[in-house]
Amino acid sequence: MKKLFVRLSLPLLILALAGCGAIPVRNATVLSSRTLPATASVAGLPGAAPSRSQQDNTAAAAAEGEMRRAEGLRLARVLRDQGSFQAASEVYSQLDHKQLLKPLELLEYASTAAIVQTSQDSLALFGRARRELQRSAELLSPAAQIALCGGLGRARLALGQTEEALRDFDCVLQQDADNLPALNARGVALDALGRHEDARSMFARASALDPADFRVLNNLALSHLSSGNSAEGIRLLKQAGATGLPTARLNLALAYLLDGQDQEARQALGFLSPRMADKALVTLQSYRTRIRDGAPVAAEFLAASRQLLALREEYKP
User: Where do the TPR repeats lie (predicted)?
Assistant: First the structure.
């Protein structure tokens, strides 16, 4: 039976950037005659210019490097489009190590690698892509701007950098006011900051765009729980969990625990093996304890979604 991955991090879509144009190999650094002795003269004449054969060899080496670079990019994109994100990221990484990626292709690499690497590494790679794009002064298309801001926002939200993530999602919405992933993610960030009414406004806009997206419904339910409306939160989580969305079922278990319904919480974890259900229950109870001790509900739900990621590696239906 195939392994099913339970995604507990708050649902966000990954934007993959289409391939860009060819990239010239970077030139070697040219040292000034102020730092090196002048080329020795022959019979009183200036240093000789490179011979025709030397020029031909240099051109041939550049052409061969360009061919290998193009082949590497083509392979990375094929692997990415086939869903082999880890393998694609490794090919991009090799090209990056050889300094063969243009700024837009570095952004392409970051968007692909974000699916398989840690949020910290993802933030670093998107940050480097942004710096390279700024240095190049290249005018970004709306799609590239969305990929950059969305990638930064998702990484920052996962790392708890909520205020910064909000600015990134606003950047996305400036390019596309109906960008569903950004609306959903912005709602999550607002909830974590305690701005529950504003958060539900974001979720309502996202749900209007796609009523069948139960990830938005899951986040709307958490928003109600965060503002103390446990009955509405549980009702919505039941609806989302009925679709088989594992994240919603785990959140439902936590909602039951917060409402004092421990038996129902255990039943909500019935999709897990007994061993994994016990492990999940202990973890969820620790969050309930912190919430009862005064920790913000929204922040604890966000932390719980990150902490329970290990379950997705161990869960088998």
Answer: 180-213
Say how many CA atoms lie within 13 Å of 213 toward its Cβ: 20
270-280 pLDDT per residue, tens: 888 898 889 88
Whether 18 is in a domain gets the answer no
Burial class (CB in 10 A: 0-12, 13-18, 19+), 257: buried
- With vertex at residue 273, the alpha carbon angle to CA 1 and CA 268, rounded to the nearest 5 degrees, is 115
As a whole number, mean pLDDT of residues 39-60 equals 52
Residue 191 lies inside a defined structural domain of this protein: yes
Tokens for 83? Answer: 């869903």
244-272 per-position pLDDT tens digit: 778 888 889 999 999 999 999 999 998 88
Range of the domain at 110: 66-138
Q: Same domain for 133 and 149? A: no
Q: Helix (H, G, I), strand (E, B), or coil: what is residue 256? A: helix
Which element (helix H / strand E) includes 305? helix 297-307
Query: Is 10 part of any domain?
Result: no
**Residue 226 and residue 312 in one domain:** yes
Helix axes 196-209, 214-226, angle to 10 degrees: 160
- Domain contains 161: yes
Q: What is the DSSP string of 167-206?
A: HHHHHHHHH-TT-HHHHHHHHHHHHHTT-HHHHHHHHHHH
Q: Which pTM value belongs to this model?
A: 0.73
Q: Check whether residue 191 and residue 270 sit in a common domain.
A: no
